[in-house]
Amino acid sequence: MSLFLEVVSVAEAVEAVRRIAPPPGCEDVPLEDALYRVLARDVLADIDIPGFDRSTVDGYAVAAAETTGASEAIPAMLQCRGRIGMGSADAGSIFPGSCRYVPTGGALPAGADAVVMIEHAEQIGDDILVHRPVAPGENVIFCGEDFGAGKVALERGRVLTPREIGVAAAVGADRVSVVKMPRIGIISTGNELVPVVETPGPGEVRDANSYLAGAFVTERGCHPVYFGIVRDDRAVLKRAVSSALDRCDAVLVSGGSSKDERDNTAAVVAELGEVLVHGIALAPGKPTIIGTARGKPVIGLPGHPASAFVVLVAVVDHLLAAMRQTAVSRRTVRARLTQNVPSTRGREDYVRVSLGNGEATPVFGKSGLLNTLVQSEGVVRIPASSEGFEVGEEVEVILW
Amino acid sequence: MSLFLEVVSVAEAVEAVRRIAPPPGCEDVPLEDALYRVLARDVLADIDIPGFDRSTVDGYAVAAAETTGASEAIPAMLQCRGRIGMGSADAGSIFPGSCRYVPTGGALPAGADAVVMIEHAEQIGDDILVHRPVAPGENVIFCGEDFGAGKVALERGRVLTPREIGVAAAVGADRVSVVKMPRIGIISTGNELVPVVETPGPGEVRDANSYLAGAFVTERGCHPVYFGIVRDDRAVLKRAVSSALDRCDAVLVSGGSSKDERDNTAAVVAELGEVLVHGIALAPGKPTIIGTARGKPVIGLPGHPASAFVVLVAVVDHLLAAMRQTAVSRRTVRARLTQNVPSTRGREDYVRVSLGNGEATPVFGKSGLLNTLVQSEGVVRIPASSEGFEVGEEVEVILW
What we know:
Two copies of one chain form a homodimer.
Chain A: H1 10-20, E1 26-30, E2 43-44, E3 54-55, E4 59-62, E5 76-83, E6 98-102, E7 114-117, E8 121-124, E9 127-130, E10 140-141, E11 152-154, H2 162-170, E12 175-179, E13 183-189, E14 193-194, E15 205-206, H3 208-219, E16 223-230, H4 234-247, E17 250-254, H5 264-272, E18 273-278, E19 282-283, E20 289-293, E21 296-301, H6 305-323, E22 332-337, E23 341-342, E24 348-356, E25 359-362, H7 371-375, E26 378-382, E27 388-389, E28 394-399
Parallel strand pairs in A: 5-6, 13-16, 13-17, 14-15, 17-21, 19-24, 22-25
Antiparallel strand pairs in A: 1-12, 2-11, 3-10, 4-6, 4-7, 5-9, 8-9, 18-20, 20-21, 22-28, 23-27, 24-25, 24-26, 26-28
Domain MoaB/Mog (chains A, B): 185-322
InterPro entries (chains A, B): MoaB/Mog-like_dom_sf, MoaB/Mog_dom, MoeA-like, MoeA_C_domain_IV, MoeA_C_domain_IV_sf, MoeA_linker/N, MoeA_linker/N_sf
Keywords (chains A, B): Molybdenum cofactor biosynthesis
């Protein structure tokens, strides 16, 4: 292998991970456990929702035509034919010249097509004075208007946020068919690494990457499986990756991907399968490996957590989204740069920035500093074709 | 009680829920279980991080001064005194005229203060030709430069996202002290409600609110405790709220808050404690109750899920954030309106919008339609002092 990396563009790397993402299975889960899962099948409304013409206010169910021209000065007068109970199976009917009280969410009686809000009516004995006209359909949700029986209420591929969970409940989906949570094996490799519970000696650092990558894949709706720290030993790493492949749908190996004699990850992937990418035109994050083994993706991340995190955001996020059969959910804001941000043409630079008052300030300090991760709110991506952005330019910030 | 609501502003409602938020306890949890928890105590670095001068690249550790003026034409020549192993306890030292190979993450030898990237050097036998000068500190993180021993690495109140989890691991916090997850009791009330597994009969609808509210509080880092559906019966509701107060830190009751004879929630709260707010100048979401009982917040939400969700976002979010002792985490984008959005002065309107191409389009259809929740990406808040926004105006969209 050559000493220098033959790098591919970030776009090529993203294409590669999307191509190798294994097709997910699906499973049924109870709706209350489905938050943030991805729908594997459309959710259909089992019946018309609502199943009846429903009032959206407290007021009087009327035939709208009978309120035409009503005003404070000349109200329409209707005889009130009692109240409709919530959940009542029979809302009765109204005949010309009459109305019925209906609470919010109650069913309209036959003959009614609108509801006069209680604030716009006055009760005088059995009579109701209507002070404002209502249009047909006003303050009413008609039967099936929200979701029609058999129609798609939520499309497959949707992530189930609280709003989708509420809609699924309304249409009777107490269980939903969702994409299986990908199991992502997480391995850290490096003779310098010690577990978090230990105090590093000279030359040693704690394994932050296992935690960082584990939390990242959890946030992205996947299940992390931890395989701990592996020394810089090709045979040992091969056993660890092999074991992770047995139990997981994809494997992330951090460290061991620099292009020198410690380049164990690429060697192991080559032995177990195929290295597709070795080096991305990305800063930080260049020494990244993309490969497959036994039909599963194996990604080699840089050993430094700050670099590894950029690769997680710029590349691995796309892999996980593809494995979940959903789009990458990325929140961005636009902000003006408070400083020039130079960049090297030919590589994509991810510059950490802090945000405030609509301004993005590049975070000072060496990019290898871990503290820059928690002092920044996001990154500005500088395309490979650009030599950077100038102070005052409006840029897109990818929120971490 | 009067027939009409004496409404307070949204700001007053938010102030009220913040005031009654019970102080949270704290607990220690393993770092791997701490994602999205809120730090109850600062996390300090136990030792200097890194604990040694550390290379951020593969290259040659040098005394920067010895590379001054180096160029392709006239390289600096240094004798290479071997390689430093990763995690090696002794990185040795260099003397004038010499350097040592150091891998990314490796410790610098004594006497070195910079690292020449391998790409900028050439090995000729035992000698290294350096083609570019390096500045002191270049490609090096000095001992303690990332986090100083005993210094705050993460402040209390911070939400532990993957980045914070990674930093906590790096500074040795295998357990963290976090705010206890508030337990939020969830009750739905209404004779019209049936469980999600049942098919609603005439006049009936499924209880979507329990799922919606449960998912919302889960998303906001709280633990939902479900108490099911309660009929419109004051004594039964009182028992349910009382039972929820026994087991939870706050209670959300949806339905039963319209200001008519079904106004059970306010009556129950008044019997068990105190009603502080009964009606908010908010559309949708007016029939909202804020009260306390046994020192715990009890919130009455509108029965309609679309209205309840607005109250969750506009008001309850602040309660949950206060209970977790953190700020409301709200993502917003700016977008131009594609249409006029009229509003009534004196109340805060939350208008659902869909987003695309930097434009916000009000979602058509009646606000009582549940499907508007999943057809919108967020809401535009129209302040009580405004009569609305005009087409083309740039507005802030609160992402759901």
